[in-house]
Amino acid sequence: YLVGVGRADCTGPVAQVPLMGYANPDQVGGGLLSRLYSRAFIVADPENSKRVVFVSADIGMVSQRVRLEVLKQLQSKYGELYRQDNVILSGTHTHSGPGGYFQYTLFWITSKGLVRPALSSIVNGIVKSIDIAHENMKRGRLFINRGAVENSQINRSPFSYLENPASERSRYSSNTDKEMVVLKMVDEDGHELGLISWFAVHPVSMNNSNHLVNSDNVGYASYLFEQEKNKGMLPGEGSFVAAFASSNLGDVSPNTRGPFCANTGEPCDNPQSACSVGGAAMCMAKGPGNDMFESTRIIGQNIYLKAKELYEKASQEVRGPLSSAHQWVNMSNVSVELNATHTVKTCKPALGHSFAAGTIDGVGAFNFTQGSVEGDPFWDQIRDQLLGEPSNETKACHKPKPILFSTGEMTWPHPWHPDIVDVQVAAIGSLAILAVPGEFTTMSGRRLREAVRSEFDSHGTPGMNVVIAGLCNVYTHYITTYEEYQVQRYEAASTIYGPHTLSAYIQLYRGLAKAIALNATQDLPRGPEPPLFNVTSTTLLPSLSAESAPAGKTFGDVLEEVRPEYQEREVAEVTFVGANPRTSAENATEHNFLTVERYSNISSSWRAVLNDASWDTRFYWSKGSSGQSNVTIEWHIPAGTEPGVYRLRYFGHYKKKVSLFRTITVPFEGSSSAFQIT
């Protein structure tokens, strides 16, 4: 094959924009722990024009809006080379990235609308990563390997899982998929290019009290792998690209110590995930570490170490033709043939009461609990008054789900949920990547993979490696099995197209697999095109206005200085007169907010040893009154840091008023005093 890899920044605004994932409106960005990247991989057939593009981006999920804008840009640059059928866009599902990049109204509520700078940085970052991969195509080889990752996941809805038939469960040793699949890429001289790992775990080691933008456990695994292979480079630099992509992670949590009541310390692993005192709002899962930062590192390191082992030992070469199949489908109206006599249908999208309960990884508000098969008259009445009552048809279709939001019947100012959904499969030789538009649970994913594998088998393509890539192309929440759906925990309440959603997807993906196996992808109907709503920017974010420094100070001045001396494992900390980091994000696509610099006696100069993409640095922004704000930079000095003289630097932009109607953006910088590490 011809192989190309690329990585580009897609962080966006790190302040004031609500983070996407926990749907907690109080969880807004207030700084940066690690940068977010889009990682692109292109595989092309040197004999013909066939190509497959796989992108994994450090974002909560790929939205339809992101996908449509990316495809539009690719078309204007490359014509028909990169299209909706051969470009897969997948989100890692970090819950600590900026939101606001959706066109459907439901996602505006917790994201404060459509935030153009957030959307643009994701779209531009994805396109740039594809550009870099495109420019660096060279002859190469692919190898695949697989193995089990231990001590890194639990099933967070085990009571739902137990609803699946005992005969089916007995075929599996665990209620989560422990298998990691690694695709290794080298050029024809054996030089390492990169890897993609697919593994099912929620990147929610960082909980909903976090305000620092970061890529969570899988992002930390990428960081460790890339730092290892790009020796001597700053984080985010270097040619080797390591993507840790999402899979069927719907019911899979990294918080391996399980759920405990925050107030009493008692376990709460019951069907309602509720505590005897304080109810469901108190039931939260704990990771393996002492705090969320440590848990993120422990889980991320586990994932990285397994990937490294599988990568080093990968010897099964991937060969064969490239192919891709794609359809748009109206998921609110799919007829599914369960057997010769029985046909069922999917429903208009709707969310159940337990959606509002959240999960043990991030609890909901008010008094909602998981496993609600009855509505609540109080909330139902409020909903009827504000949003309108669900139709009888929708209520019946979703049974036994009590509907909280009948999103498929809510259209103001735009539809609240998508009807038109992408289904997509890309085959690279013996590897089939199923790009799914949401979060399949463990058992849903197993059923889908098995159905697709048997479809390939029965049409003359046996022994395919089938992987699920999660959170692709458009976000449609969760996909549970029919049995899991009956008990209506969070994942089931969020299965928006009703109890037969999984059966519909299995039918659709079998169709795509069959078309690939029979070389008939050109005969697949395209399906109804998704809408691109005419919204440029609709946001409740505060506008960026002129900023000021305290009397007698200027931007970048030090307010609280570092100590003169530190040892490893201590935290060097400095506070500056700061400015809103959103100003920097809107001015420079890849703005670096900080460096850690070491003084070299040989050259008598300062050299940057870390930047803001490092997981050892933290950048905090806090807004004061009357246009003033502070920035605090922390360096958590790791064991093994070379002794010497260091300093911390800060780079920002502030808004300055030059006339009644005009403000300009002014760059500035600040530096701490020098300090010694002994």
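The above is record 1. Record 2 follows with the same two-line structure.
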Amino acid sequence: SLRFLNASANKLEMLPPATLSEETHSILQELYLTNNNLTDKCVPLLTGHPHLKILHMAYNRLQSFPASKMAKLEELEEIDISGNKLKAIPTTIMNCRRMHTVIAHSNCIEVFPEVMQLSEIKCVDLSCNELSEVTLPENLPPKLQELDLTGNPRLALDHKTLELLNNIRCFKIDQPSAGDASGAPAVWSHGYTEASGVKNKLCVAALSANNFCDNREALYGVFDGDRNVEVPYLLQCTMSDILAEELQKTKNEEEYMINTFIIMQRKLGTAGQKLGGSAVLCHIKHDPMDPGGCFTLTSANVGKCQTVLCRNGKPLPLSRCYMMSCEEELKRIKQHKAIITEDGKVNGVTDSTRILGYTFLHPSVVPRPHVQSITLTPQDEFFILGSKGLWDSLSMDEAVEAVRNVPDALAAAKKLCTLAQSYGCNDSISAVVVQLNVTEDSFCCCELNGVPPPSPGIFPQSVNVVIKDRPTDALGMPSSSSGMASEISSEISTSEMSSEVGSTASDEPPQVAMNENSPAYPGEQRCMLHPVCLSNSFQRQLSSATFSSAFSDNGLDSDDEEPIEGVFTNGSRVEVEVDIHCSRAKEKQLLQVPVEASDEGIVISANEDEPGLPRKAEYSATGTIGRRRGNGSVAPQERSHNLIEVATDAPLRKTGGYFAAPAQPDPDDQFIIPPELEEEVKEIMKQHQEQQQQQQQQQQRQYPTDHLADYYDTPL
């Protein structure tokens, strides 16, 4: 008498025989065997169930499905053999005249099956395979509603085939991507899937924007209308525009997310009076003022749509469901004197106390979302957005474990949807998987003294970031991949430096011995993005600003007793080192210049100032690095200075495209006067000085400065 059997998510390797004797016959109609270890040996045993209508054998170890066995399952209506290693679907599937759903994604299928010959076929999913072409009949099946061919990179469709397939209500195919012009690896990539429930109504919707507002932001969302189609569709079409407008008004994550949901509640209009829907939004943003800074993930949700982040292989919930079981929500609802039915619903309508729509239940039911922001780290692998049907069937631990080893985001989303359906979900399902590739170059933990931010939620101790010591040859300047260094290196090309300096400048870095007594930021930890700049380990790189002059030999002026602070020389090249480290993190703190001389030179370091100094002292310094002396050298300044002013007072660039450093006479360039001409040269120089004095006296007579007239005659 067994008609329904679900043995999914076990470790089955074999199936028992259909019957114990020839006199009894199986009447089994639905068999779910997803997520087991079944092999090809189990397929012949299925023929003992001739009345089988629904067969799910996804994510097993099948390599083939014999055609003779498929021919005997004539009453089969729905089959799911996804996630195996099948290379083809048997042609005897034509014998299954009642077949309406064929799901075979995430296999190795190379030949398009003959499913289009079935008159009752409605849904075909062949995504994430190795299809290269599609063979279609002259007329498509009249009931065909969905055809998914995404994730087939080798697939090429001609114009005639595309015109024919575009008549399908839901036809999915990969869009040709232009690719990233910069050639840099993507920080995130996504895949999403949607599946209708038993009533064949798609009451969910997904939102995905990899380039939201600009190429440094992304927006993803999942919306669930439970049993209505209108609200998810409105949320999908409207919420991204509202969020873009709110981002122009405020940069606070919690503020713009809450405003987005409240405005969306108003825009639902009449559709939101008696209907409602759950929603979750995930916004990835990057500080535009810090090109090499961190990415922030902000999640906001109402209802039962939720987000979970996989960090170090463990789930990190970013959402919260406000239900009647929450004490604070129950207390709030009782204050508004709402009716709570026996099944735990507000006025018998919804068990979610925070959800979009249902305006007739206000103020008991409100659209205020739960907002949580987190800084993305290299330990963050991916995050999942799911609808109510997904999380009712899978726990967050199961979902993270199921897709952690799936390399493709689309295949991961498909797997979540297939597992939920095989575990008994009859509702509409939507899942979005966003894979992350946050490198250490785009993760800055300097604000927290080198320690990454703690993990919120139930795993506060799950992150351990090791800040590796960089070799000394990489400590001089940030890498050219960062925004600041690339701008500097783009202005100073290699050809400019070589043509100006000539062969006197050596390209080898100076060999500098480390001094144990020299300060090297002992108490400060920096990230890989902003390394510590040691005072005695300055290395010359092409990305550093190089100032050259034909009159510089050792960085010393004739009247100076010590080297110019922050200036390093090599032959006729003068190099100035400036540490503009993580200005965003220290914009509210003061900066000072410790004058620490050593035998090799002095490094200008930007450290945090004493806490006792007033805030306005940051802008009180009128000098830059120091006061400029009359001979062109720079004297060290006692108090703090502004880093912006350092850049503005750097040696100006000549019209010819080169920098001018403080000049001084080069001994090699001085005149060598023979003794016999010495008296004659002195006489010429004396006459030249007398001429200059006479010219100055004439100018003073024409334009007297010591006595000014009381009035002047002017044309007015």
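Confidence is low (pLDDT under 50) at residues 447-526, 528-561, 568-572, 584-663.
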